[in-house]
Predict the structure.
Amino acid sequence: AAAVDAFTDAIGTRAPPLAVVESVEPHPVPALNDGSGFTIRPSAPAGTGRTLIPPDTATCDACLTELADPADRRHRHPFITCTHCGPRFTVVTGLPYDRPRTTM
C-alpha cells in the first residue's frame, strides 16, 4: 500500500516537464488471478479523454547528448525525443499516441 501511495503522489509531483496533471483519483480494482499473465492489449479509440498533444519543443539536453554519442543506439537519429521533449505534434495524427497514429 505504501508503494502505491508513493506512486500516486509521484504522478503529480514528479511528472515530466511537458505534462499537466490536473488530478489523481485512485480507485481500487479487484486483482486478476486467472493465470492469464501479462498481455499488451490494443489501445482503445480516443473517446472523451482530454489528453493533449504537446506542441513541438526544443530537443532536451539528454536527447542531444544521445544524438551526439556514437556509442548510443540513437546516435544521429533524426526524430529523437523523450518524455521531457516529445512526442512531436508534427508527427502525431491522433490519440492515443501509438505507432499507427504517427507519420513515421
Summary: Residues 2-13 form the longest helix (12 residues).
